[in-house]
Amino acid sequence: MSHANAALTPRARLKLARLVVDHGWPVARAAERYDVSWPTAKRWAGRYRQLGPEGMDDRSSRPHRCPHRTPQPVVRQIVHLRWKQRLGPVEIADRTGLAPSTVHAVLVRCRLSRLTAIDRATGEPVRRYEHDHPGSLVHVDVKKLGNIPDGGGWRYVGRAQGRQNRKITGHRTGQRSRDYGHPLVGTAFIHTVLDDHSRLAYSEICADETRETAVLVLRHAAAWFTARGVRIERVLSDNGACYRSKLWAAACAELGIIPKRTRPYRPQTNGKIERFHRTLAEGWAFKKFYASDHARRAAFPAWLHHYNHHRPHTAIGRSAPITRLTNVPGQYT
Predict the structure, then answer these.
(1) Does the pLDDT of residue 332 top 60, yes or no?
(2) Count of domains for the chain
(3) Does 54 have pLDDT greater than 70?
(4) Phi first, then psi: what are they for 188, rounded to 5°?
């Protein structure tokens, strides 16, 4: 591409070459007309004779051959070490006898410079999928969070003060560890139902992860999605006890939902909801200081609404999840 101060653009080159080739102008006169050197005018005229108007565009500066380029067998060895063992450029360089900069250049050329592009378990490139319409598949899972003691948790007040706050709050609530007798504050179980296509999320903070609670959340989610014009067709879960129960299977059959489960030790299959839980932790659970668990729970509905209706989602073109629903009641009124 021509730089900003170039004397000849592709269009001007074509005019210069036509003056010389088609109209018989001397090369020196054409060069003077366009304020360029004689060799430059001759080069463009010669390229016009050989290639025509298409030859007036800039050519790549990439060399036709590179005798010192890393041999292909070595490139395959680098890629194998990156895929199968997830090694960095320095470790790969030590095994192959190359410079780390050379290894990094090969990884960049092969689009393997970031480990996020490689599946953590198999070492193969990440394969992504997305169902074509809302409700075709929803993901379900449970996120566990320790409740915040009165006065704040250790992340913001320090471990010593956090333990003290937890002890006082635990004595006040009467909760104790069965093993050591230490006071506890408890655990919050966040049940989430996430639509695969739109990334729209329904979530509840519950006191446990029993099968009865999981079924109740699924019923609430089905009604919530139905109110927004979405019918759940399939549900994908991990192999937790609540999702393997007969009660869960019966509830899915009653709601007309096909239950599916991931392979054991394959959380990547349910990766969309795992990523939602990370966003939940960063954007709500640990985003700021909460003086009590009640304060954090009170902030959850507002954050969830922001996620569904306002937060740009990079996986769906930086749009909010609600924008992928085309049949929301009242949307076009």
Answers:
(1) no
(2) 3
(3) yes
(4) -100, 135
Angle, to 10 degrees, between the axis of helix 72-85 and the axis of helix 100-109? 80
**Quick one: CA dihedral 128, 134, 135, 141, positive or negative?**
positive
Between helices 100-109 and 89-96, what is the axis angle to 10°?
110
CA distance 262 to 92: 34
List the one residue out of 287, 333, 281, 8 whose CA is nearest residue 145: 281
Per-residue pLDDT, 182: 45
Instruction: Please indicate whether residue 275 or residue 153 has the higher confidence score (pLDDT).
Output: 275
The yes-or-no verdict on residue 178 having pLDDT over 80 is: no
Q: Using one digit for the tens of pLDDT, what is the confidence trace for 100-110?
A: 999 999 999 98
CA dihedral of 66, 67, 70, 73, whole degrees rounded to 10: 120
Helical packing angle, 211-226 and 246-255, nearest 10°: 20
3-state secondary structure of 260: strand
Q: How many Cβ atoms from other residues are within 10 Å of residue 198's Cβ? A: 26
Residue 241 lies in a domain: yes
Q: Are residues 103 and 207 both part of a single domain?
A: no
Task: Write down the pTM of the prediction.
Answer: 0.64
Pick from 217, 204, 203, 202: nearest CA to 135 = 202
- Rounded mean pLDDT of 295-310? 94
Beta-strand ranges (E) seen in 164-256 are 187-195, 201-206, 234-237
Same structural domain, 196 and 310: yes
Closest CA to 145 of 284, 272, 241, 285: 285
- The residues, any chain, with a CB within 8 Å of residue 6's CB and separated by 6 or more, are none
